[in-house]
Records
---
Amino acid sequence: MTRINILLCDTFPGRLPDFIPNYESLFMDLFAAIGEQVTYRIYQTWQGELPQDINTDEIYLVPGSLDSAYSDKPWIVELLKWIERAYALGARLMGVCFGHQAIARALGGTVEPYEGGFGAGIRASQVLDEQMKSYFPNDQMHLLYSHHDQVMTLPPGAVRCATSDFCRNESFRIGHQVVTFQGHPEFTVAYSRHLLLNCCDDVEQSVRVNALKSLELLEPQGPNAARFALDLLLDR
């Protein structure tokens, strides 16, 4: 039985449709969809709650947030310190979107707003990592996205797993201990469509139109990313 600790960094009030009870349920549905038997513990990290004892047999997942990983809000500063300490102790870390960026920053990388605009919808990226390629047909990874910020430089020792013209560092890993994605493996097409139609008033109309089109043209591969991440972190 796999144990995943979700360090919840946002509850997204007003952004979740009626068919999603809470943000963490998206991850639970994702791992159930790939047949993984998982037990969970949820930490309200956005309120300052963090795991006190690190179990190196378990996975610690840092998910999305509306906040920026380069922010110096007290809870984010404490999260970054926790990530650095947990990594030093050998914790298995998985990051998604904000979590991808927070792990990068905590371990020595840099995160900045991206001048090229907002990333949304389904984006195709080129898989570079040889181990990762076996999980994605034609070495192409299709994930759902919703982000303004990006990891600009990777932490020392990190390997770029996937890249695209829009986002150079789509995914990275450090050995079998850390794996992160800029995209959202846990998102569904229905949820992404809801966000684009109801929660993106500050996004250019052309970006929203193209993002909505991508939902019709491409199939998201969140389960592939989840399987790769678990197999990597659990040394399968």
Note: The two ends are 14 Å apart (CA to CA).
---
Amino acid sequence: MTQNPAMRDKENGTTSLSRALGLLTAFQGISPPLSLSELARRAGLPKSTAFRFLTDLEDAGFVERDSQGYQLGLPLFELGSRVPVCRPNGLRDIAMHQLSELHVTTGLNAHLAVPDGTDVVYVAKVNRGQQTLRNHFTPGARHAASCDAPGKAILAFSDPSVVEAVLERGLPRRTKYSITEPRWFRRELERIRANGVAFEQEEASLGIAAVAAPVLVDGQPVGAVSVSQVPPIRNPDRLAAQIKAAAAAISRDCEATTAWAW
């Protein structure tokens, strides 16, 4: 009897759905368009298999193809916009006013990031047109929480089990300044809890410094506000006060919004 291809895939430890999703997630952390060969390599698939699944994804509108390669399609943006944090009265919507104010008062790029497991994902950015710190903080960017100012701000106020999960995963060394020793990392989180603000000096990427404060709703960190600049951090005390004030205002706005959607 002829078996269904999806069933054969499942017996081999993967499914057709997981292969298609693997191709979509292959776009993470890199700017499209991407070639067939690159997508196949990143997804761990033969080129012929990758091409077959990409054709199905293209037919559904989830990817688009031109002479330069493949890129994500608008239907994925539509779906992503329905994620609770991005919906009307979601965290991003509520935070945008304070992010804009923070950008104006500091003259720096302002960001909002939310936790996702042991990582943080950036969901909003307000920046000057003339200032670029590469694509490090572009909405959709994902960073290891332990190397990232918003990530550390969130972890400092998270349940201890969340911190343990980060430590069990291992503290990655993104640069020579990354904290990779658990004892020192715990002490860093203690300082952040005491001060209410996290500093990052080139721990995630060389040439980038950041300051962040957590957004707390009912005492739980649902995100973090940050600003970034070329190091060293200038006027750190004043900057810390401005960021903590913005994060506190967002927290109050979330708690005051009865239709707030996480």
Note: Residues 1-13 have pLDDT under 50 and may be disordered.
